[in-house]
Amino acid sequence: MTDHTHQYAPPPGTKTEVLEPVEAKQATNKPRNMPMVLSLSLAGAVIALGVIWMLFLK
Questions:
Q1: TM segments (predicted)?
Q2: 16 Cβ neighbours under 8 A, 6+ residues apart
Q3: What is the pLDDT of residues 2-56, one digit of tens each?
Q4: DSSP letter at 13?
Q5: Contact 47, 41 (CB under 8 A)
Q6: Separation of alpha carbons 33 and 17, rounded Å
């Protein structure tokens, strides 16, 4: 019967990479310029709907 266990150890004599611990970020940064983005996209949507509305009123 063959042995199907995984061998996770490197072969003897090989150099392995040393892993350094990394600090995980606990929260996202505060979104910048969000009020300006929301107001510009709202204005763009109003203008686009106004243009479409005017095309139907011709």
A1: 36-57
A2: 10
A3: 666 666 777 777 777 788 888 877 777 777 888 899 999 999 999 999 999 999 8
A4: T
A5: no
A6: 42
